[in-house]
Amino acid sequence: MILSKLDAAIYPFTSLAAKIVEELEANLGIDSILSSDSEILHRSIERIREAIYSRITSVYKKDLDVEILSHPVALLLIKAINNTKLFNLYAEAEKNRVFFNMVNEEVDKILFLAIDGFKWHLKKDGDNILLRFDEYLRASISILDPYWKLVNRKLRGGYVEVTKRDLCRLIAEAYRERIIEKVNKRDEIYVPDRIKPIIEELNKEIEAVLPKVEVTASISISEYNPSAFPPCILKLLEEANEGKNLPHMARFTLATFLISVGKRPEEIIDIFRKLPDFDENKTMYHLRHVAGEIGSRIRYIPPSCATLRTFNLCPSGDELCLKVKHPLTYYSHKLRLMRKMRHEKRAKQ
Amino acid sequence: MKKELSNEDYVKRMFKSYYLKWRGEPPKEYDRREYAFMLSKKGDMIRHKSFEDWDEMKEFLAKNAPLHAFYSSAYYLQPSAPDMDAKEWIGADLIFDIDVDHIYTPCKENHDKWLCLECGFNGKGMAPEACPSCSSKRIESKTWFCEKCIDIAKEEAIKLVEDFLINDFGFSPTEIEIVFSGRRGFHIHVENDVVKELDQRARREIVDYIKGIGLTLQEKKKRKLLVPPLNAYGWSGRIAKGVYEILNFHEPQKIAEILDFKKTSKIENIVRQILSGLEEAKDYWVLEGEARRIWLKAAEKAIVNKRCEIDERVTTDIKRLIRLPETLHGGTGLIVLKMRTKDLEEFDPYKHAVAFKKGEIKVKIIEMPKITFLDEEWGPYKDEVVEVPLGLAMYLICSDNAVINIEEG
User: Fold this and answer.
1) CA angle, A33 as apex, A31 and A36 as ends, to 5°?
2) What's the ipTM?
């Protein structure tokens, strides 16, 4: 089977992608690839941003050379930024890219990709695909769902029966592992001085969004009452309802806020339905991800007021806004105030 | 002047005579392994030994006559490095331990005893994990490996090798080595490049597979149950066969009792429905209602019958020390005997694993139940001096059940 350049762009683990990267690096030279006005550098940064906000990286088809090189350059930037959460997030987003593209491929092509990229031992038995058990174990070991546990699989003669979709998932997982191995490798990386400000800036953005993931456990709000929502969230809800094309950060804020106040992904997916690029499967995937139902199993919370201001998502709120630093704190204070007012009203009656 | 010969001196002398003629085969890539020895009962373990040349091993054994000899299931770049990290792990064989100590056998009520070293509480049968009186874990037990125990251990080993390792995991019989542990069980070694680099998590999955841990019998909240055909692969088929055996073997009333099913009037029809369903099905088929409940209950029993009782700690440990085949077990004087799969069925430890086959000797036996040794029945004995075959005497002395009864001039 012959892979196209587009295949190499979509699937960075193929031998063709590796070959093209090698050739381009030799022809262009690292300095031109990393020059501050380089299209490749810009696409790499975009690819990292997509990973942070969308949990999946897109395929930029206008210039395949740029797309192919943007992956190794993104890895270089990630190594320079050196943030474990970012490693995992990028690897996860790349995994999703591979999975969602691969499920639409023909079986034979998927088999080819697995053998080409990972040297797996695969067999076809009628409609069944068989994968050698040690390779199955390595690729499936981080998936917690009982469906993937070896004991629940059909194992015979050292081979595990898998469906086409299973195989796509396993390849995507193996690809994720490979990225994590690569960024964890302690080798010297060359970062030219002129792109250091770019890394700096990216780092700041990541710091603003990512550290929020660990404090979730301390916040638990069970009451759901939209009239206590802070002005920023109300504004975002309104804009979503109007079908505006909201930026990554806005969607992230809205989704994490609603999940933090007790909504489940399937209850809030409708809010995003009017967005111009709405895709039910992808949106559901992202929502379940930030809700901690899948992937890293971490429930994300919305960014702080300061971050929202930086990203122009703070509509300069009301009096209560002046007393809080986080939209969720606003919400719990407002709930308490409203409860108090209700009590007082009842007392007067 | 006459001097009393101690048990330990006697054992050492006999072991030495065995090791002078020792011709044990080296394990695969023997120079990449770590070796460990215990020279005496109370002494420390000598660890981090390695041998560049197998003749050095023979010399070491002949010179030191260790009570116990071990080698690492792991392969290392620096097998003799004293620090585990400095050894640089390359891979490890996949090993399984089937030990009657961890398997319930009814005959233990007759021949096993245990004593809590903390409070003195004691009992017959399988030793508990912790003392039921004071919950101390310092428990000493006196155990025997009777014919029934041997049969149970063999059955488990055959199940492991044939059903799981060959059928499901696809290993070839030439990659599988069965070794009598020297006491109450078997070690099964798989030396194969596919498994060599598997990490602990992957090995844990293999253990769970063999022990049937984490099996999902049905999807949650589903009323209808998809039942596998008898020839399905993996655990699906294993459960179908197990259920068939249970339902086909017993009378309906007995099945109702085993499965704790109250509606005894209905059981006969349900059993017939499931049995004929299994006999005819070529693909997955559907069960609902009471039949579904019976299936699920029978499937739970089938899993217990079909799973294999291996010690998960041994298999998941990728730096395990395990007995070196063909050496002697210091607690029994028996040979840690390597055998082929086809020899397992006929194997008798008190015949094939006996190192000292010739001669008789008088020993003072403290206590022993009746056992068959070298095809002859011996015992039971209690506090008496008896002339027994040398191999049996060694067995009793090594296991602290007898003392040597000769004087040396």
Assistant:
1) 80
2) 0.89
Pairing of strands A128-132, A159-162: antiparallel
Partner residue facing B205 (CB), from A137, A159, A161: A137
Torsion of the alpha carbons at A147, A151, A153 and A156, rounded to the nearest 10: 170
Phi, psi angle pair for A69, to nearest 5°: -75, -20
Q: Give A30-34 contacts, CB < 8 A, sequence gap 24+.
A: A30/A190, A30/A192, A31/A192, A33/A69, A33/A73, A34/A73, A34/A191, A34/A192, A34/A194, A34/A195
Q: Tally C-beta pairs within 8 A across A and B.
A: 65
Q: What is the pLDDT of residue A341?
A: 87
Cα dihedral B103, B105, B109, B112 sign? negative
Asked whether B336 and B44 are in contact (CB, 8 A), the reply is no
Kindly state whether B178 is in contact with chain A, defined as any CB-CB distance less than 8 angstroms.
no
Question: At a CB cut-off of 8 Å and minimum separation 6, what does A234 contact?
Answer: A226
Strand order in the sheet with B139-142: B122-124, B113-116, B139-142
Answer whether A161 sits within 8 Å of B233, measured CB to CB: yes
Beta carbons of A179 and A90 less than 8 angstroms apart: yes
How far apart are alpha carbons A167 and A171 in whole angstroms? 6
Shortest distance, CA A205 to any CA of chain B (angstroms): 36
For the residues B352-368, what does the mean pLDDT come to? 94
pLDDT tens-place string over residues A112-169: 999 999 999 999 988 899 999 999 999 999 888 889 999 999 999 999 999 999 999 9
Under a CB-based contact definition with an 8 Å cutoff, are residues A321 and A330 in contact? Answer: yes
Judged by a CB distance cut-off of 8 A, whether residue A341 touches chain B is: no
Number of DSSP helices (H) and strands (E) in chain B, helices first: 13, 22
Cα torsion B333, B336, B338, B344 to 10°: value is 80
**CA gap B375, B211 in Å, rounded:** 35
Distance CA A18, CA A72 (A): 10
DSSP string across A81-120: HT-HHHHHHHHHHHHHHHHHHHTTS-HHHHHHHHHHHH--
Chain A residues touching B94 at Cβ < 8 A: none
What pLDDT, on a 0 to 100 scale, did the predictor assign at position B21? 94
Specify whether the CB–CB gap between A97 and A56 falls below 8 A: yes
pLDDT of B111: 81
- Tell me if B341 sits within 8 A of B159, measured CB to CB: no
Touching check for B190 and chain A: CB below 8 Å?
A: no
A151:B214 CB<8 A: yes
Rounded CA gap, A127 and A109, in Å?
A: 15
Q: Which residues pair with B360 in a beta bridge?
A: B389
**Confidence grade of residue B407 (pLDDT, cut at 50, 70, 90):** low
Nearest to A32 by CA among A80, A65, A57: A65
Task: Assess contact for B321 and B71: CB atoms under 8 A.
Answer: yes
| Backbone torsions φ then ψ of A5, nearest 5 degrees | -65, -35
Query: For residues B349 and B154, what is the distance between their CA atoms, to the nearest angstrom?
Result: 11
Question: Domain coordinates of chain A in residue numbers?
Answer: 5-101+179-207, 104-171, 214-348
Instruction: Give this prediction's pTM.
Output: 0.80
Q: Which of B171, B194, B312 to mutate to test the interface with A (most CBs of A within 10 A)?
A: B194
A276 backbone dihedrals φ, ψ, rounded to 5°:
-60, -35
Looking at CA atoms only, how far is residue B323 from chain A in angstroms? Answer: 26
Which chain A residues have a beta carbon less than 8 Å from that of B201? 141
pLDDT score of B6: 87
Token pair 């390359």 is found at: B90
Tens-place pLDDT, residues A282-300: 888 888 888 877 766 677 8
The Cα–Cα gap between B80 and B76 comes to: 9
Residue of chain B minimizing CA distance to A120? B194
